[in-house]
Design brief:
Largest sheet: 7 strands, mixed
CATH superfamily of the largest domain: Vaccinia Virus protein VP39
Order of helices and strands: EHEEHEHEHEEHEHHEHEEHEHEE
Structural class: alpha/beta
Distance between the termini: 55 Å
Bound molecules: S-adenosylmethionine
Radius of gyration: 23 Å
Number of strands: 14
Number of helices: 10
Helix content: 25-40%
Mean pLDDT: 96
CATH topology of the largest domain: Rossmann fold
InterPro entries: DNA_methylase_N6_adenine_CS, RlmKL-like_Mtase, RlmKL-like_Mtase_CS, RlmL_1st, SAM-dependent_MTases_sf, THUMP_dom
Shape: elongated
Number of domains: 2
Organism: Thalassobacillus hwangdonensis
CATH class of the largest domain: Alpha Beta
GO molecular function: methyltransferase activity
Protein name: Class I SAM-dependent RNA methyltransferase
Strand order of the largest sheet: 2-3-1-4-7-6-5
Keywords: Methyltransferase, RNA-binding, Transferase
CATH architecture of the largest domain: 3-Layer(aba) Sandwich
Length: 376
């Protein structure tokens, strides 16, 4: 029976250290952080736990093998030498996807079919199957990823990407990925007893992720994962992980989280999303222009993803919004403000130099995360 596994939590560029922190907080110490991923040596019970709890990772993959290959023969033989039968049963469905960067084996379709063939041969031999493998069982999406001639073979344990929490019923034009929204909150030092406002909330992603963090609700609690169907992970491990998530959720933690937006349709969507996330009336939603925002308490946090002003015709309006926000926050120096934007002169318009900046990608858009620490 498989006990120890190598897992890969994939991360968007710039978020690797945030993902690594989350992995460590879940109690996994044997980790390696590289571009785009965190590799974790752990017991198989980490598969349910990482999938359920990681807020900022894209997926959790099971690494089956890693080796150098310069020819199709080498790729075939080394793939076939790996213990696939420990993971994929006789009837497992295992499509093979692929990618190749800066490598001798650059034809991705060829690599995919060679890997597929090698796994088929191995499984037939080990499971004692003379004819075709039926592939009518659980789903084991397999990936061959080649980078500078190093081949990484893995099986995706998540199914749909981890950003799909299962609460998004609707969205606006430029919704933030849930994983990035969670990272924006985690990059602040907000504590659940402090006021939290997103004055450009759109479909509510940042405020909803903050509420989930505030009450320690596992982000994957409302969804399913491909590996829930896998035979080599005992069903009770999933049960234990879901029970642990239920026990650790702190539904009694009071929160003061508000999402506001100029567009009343977005507020309706945000409300519906929060309901779907099981948050009920926990987050306050308001239709309001940013210039009418007046913080009422001290020591609060603004975390927001305003429009960037990249679309024709919106530049001036967006610049005025940044100025308005800067003026309001200047009157409230105890508040900390965190803004994600690609606008090149944001600080100038806002009227203050950021305490700290961090480069992040919002999809393909290069952005900066401007952080203004409140005066204590
Ligand atoms: C980039 S979107 C935010 C997306 C959000 N993070 C999400 O995940 O759905 C920017 C939002 O700012 C809102 N907005 C534009 N002008 C505004 C203003 N003057 N005051 C408040 N909100 C405004 C838009 O309606 C839009 O929903």
């Amino acid at each position: 029976m498989v006990r120890k596994v190598t897992l890969i939590a994939t991360a968007a560029m710039g978020l690797e250290s945030v993902v690594a922190n989350e992995v460590k907080q879940l109690g996994y110490e044997d980790i390696e952080v590289e571009n785009g991923r965190v590799t974790i040596q752990a017991d198989i019970s980490a598969i349910p736990r990482l999938n359920l709890w990681l807020r900022t990772a894209d997926r959790v993959k099971l690494q089956v093998g890693k080796f150098k290959a310069y020819s199709f023969d080498e790729l075939f033989e080394q793939t076939k030498a790996l213990p696939w039968e420990q993971f994929i049963p006789e009837n497992g469905e295992f499509p093979v996807i692929g990618k190749s960067v800066k490598s001798k084996l650059y034809s991705v379709p060829d690599c995919q079919s060679i890997v597929k063939k090698a796994i088929v041969e191995r499984l037939k031999q080990k499971h004692g199957v003379a004819s075709w493998l039926k592939e009518d069982g659980a789903f084991y999406r397999t990936e061959v990823a080649i980078h500078k001639d190093t081949v990484l073979l893995s099986i995706d344990t998540s199914g749909s990407g981890l950003h799909k929490r299962g609460y998004r019923t609707g969205q606006g034009e430029a919704p933030l990925k849930e994983t990035l929204a969670a990272a924006l909150v985690q990059l602040t030092n907000w504590r659940p007893d402090r006021p939290f406002v997103d004055p450009f909330c759109g479909s509510g992603t940042i405020a909803i992720e903050a509420a989930l963090i505030g009450q320690n609700i596992a982000p994957g609690f409302n969804r399913e994962f491909a590996s829930e169907e896998w035979e080599f992970i005992p069903g009770e491990m999933w049960e234990q992980a879901f029970n642990e998530a239920e026990e650790l959720a702190d539904y009694d933690q009071p929160l003061d989280i508000t999402g506001s937006d100029i567009d009343h349709r977005m507020i309706e969507i945000a409300k519906a999303n929060a309901m779907e996330a099981g948050l009920g009336e926990l987050v306050q939603w308001k239709q309001r222009q940013v210039k009418d925002f007046r913080p009422k308490q001290e020591n609060g946090y603004v975390v927001s993803n305003p429009p960037y002003g990249e679309r024709i015709g919106e530049k001036e309006e967006v610049e005025q919004m940044y100025k308005d926000l800067g003026d309001i926050m200047a009157d409230n120096p105890s508040w900390s403000v965190y803004i994600l934007t690609s606008h090149p002169t944001f600080e100038k318009l806002y009227g203050q130099k950021a305490s700290k900046k961090r480069k992040l990608f919002n999809g393909f858009i290069k952005t900066d995360y401007y952080q203004f620490f409140g005066k204590k």
